[in-house]
Structures are given as C-alpha cells and as structure tokens.
Amino acid sequence: MKNFDWTSFTKRIAVKASLAEIYDAWTKAEELEKWFLKQVDFYSLENTSFDRKANVAKDISYAWYWYLYDEPMKGRITSVNGRDFIQFTFEGECLVDVNLEELNGYVIVTLRHHNIPLDDNSKQYVRLGCSNGWAFYLTNLKSVFEGGLDLRNKDEALPAMINN
Hints:
Elements: E1 9-15, H1 19-27, H2 29-35, E2 39-43, E3 61-65, E4 73-80, E5 85-90, E6 94-103, E7 106-114, H3 120-147
Helix pairs in contact: 1-2
C-alpha cells in the first residue's frame, strides 16, 4: 500500500445518452433526484432557493439528501461550463470533477474525486467508501438513462446496502 494514492481516485463509465441529457443529470435538481439523490436543494449566494429546473451555476450551495439517511451533505458548486464540466465540494473540502465527452454515440463520464485528506477517517470513509459509492451511482446513472431502471434501495425497512 506504499504507492497507493489516498488523495484521489477516478471512475469512468460510458452512457448511451446525449451530452445535454447527462450534463443536466449532474446540474439540475430534479434530474439529480432521478438517479443519485432523494432530495436536492440548491441555494443562491443570497441563500434563496434556486430553480429546480435550471442548471446550477458557480458558487451555488447545496444540501443533498440520500435515501435512508436523515442528514444532508452540504457543499457548493465551484465550477461549471454549461456544457461538459462541473466541479463541486464533497465530504468537506474534497473536490469532485465531472468531465463529459462524446465518443461513438456515448457520453464518457469521468469522475475524479480529489483533495482527500490523509487522516485515517478520510482514508476509510472518503477514499475507500466514496470510491465504492461513486461506482454504484455511476452504474445507476447508466441504468436510469439507458433502461429506466433505478437501482437504489429506497426501502427504509431494509438495512444499508451497496445500493444506498
């Protein structure tokens, strides 16, 4: 484990959809709720609600809620370009870059989670835990957009699993 990079990881997946659809999937509240989150709240700099149907902009804050968890994750959008890139904070001051690229009828989603601290808690829960989480949610993105099947566990009677 000497040469293991605890500070970042990258995940990639090909999704058969349009670039605009996948960009919206990452930047609109109502679209994020279709494959990733139970509830998405975006807030402007003035701390007012942001239009759920609009693409987010830089410096918009968020509160993201998952199924089966009461506490939201809070963060902010640090960069967007309106077409194929979004960056946001995640798990504190970690950064997630999402790059989209069209290739042979697919959108290649490249997610890079970086700026991960080197304390043991961050190594376990952010580096290793988020790596597993992003692998599932990227798979769910593909499933929702290619076949319409949402793979998330939404049943509160069931314990935590790999799909929540």
